[in-house]
Amino acid sequence: MTTKKVLVAYGTKHGATAGIAEQIGNTLREDGLDAVVLPADHIDDVRGYDAVVLGGAVYAGRWSSKARRCAERNADSLRHRPVWLFSSGPLDRSAEEHDIPPTPAVARQMQLIGAREHQTFGGSVTARTSGLVARSILRQGKGGDYRNPERIRTWAHHISAELAAA
Fold first, then answer.
1. In Å, how far are 8, 39, 80, 84, 113 from 70, measured between CA atoms?
2. Phi then psi for 85, rounded to 5 degrees?
3. pTM
């Protein structure tokens, strides 16, 4: 029996979504899968992978253009393997309190590539986050790191279990 190779790709501006992708990749590896974590804009061909997890940050209701373009560029191949999508973004605990559905744009991507499911995780804007928008968010007192490592690991274990059952 060969180990399944899983691509965990992400679109991020400031690194918070990359951190979520790394946690997913680490958990999949702990579960015995061969997980590779890469920026979505570095992915030209997903055919070398048995499954794909693709994530993107959500800014002002829009999913990362890097993640969206990766999905569109690889749509034909993605339709022929298990795919999960995730978003990061809410700067509060809402992602832990209830299921946040994908934005309309992410829902369209799910249909385009036949994704199995979508999960939303909290985002992160801290003093280390660069950019004018980040500074504005922090001045408004809305910043913080709302990524929940346990919730991320639980979802990644769920993906591992689905792949094991396939």
1. 12, 10, 15, 13, 11
2. -115, 150
3. 0.92
The pLDDT tens digits for 63-99 are 999 999 999 999 999 999 999 999 998 877 889 899 9
| DSSP code per residue over the chain | -PPPEEEEEEE-SSSHHHHHHHHHHHHHHHTT-EEEEEEGGG-S--TT-SEEEEEEEEETTEE-HHHHHHHHHTHHHHTTS-EEEEEE--SSSHHHHSPPPPPHHHHHHHHHHT-SEEEEE--EE-TT--SHHHHHHHHTT--EE---HHHHHHHHHHHHHHHHH-
d(CA 73, CA 76): 8
> What is the total residue count of the chain?
166
Report d(CA 9, CA 54) in Å as an integer: 5
Tell me the C-alpha distance between 132 and 153, whole Å: 31
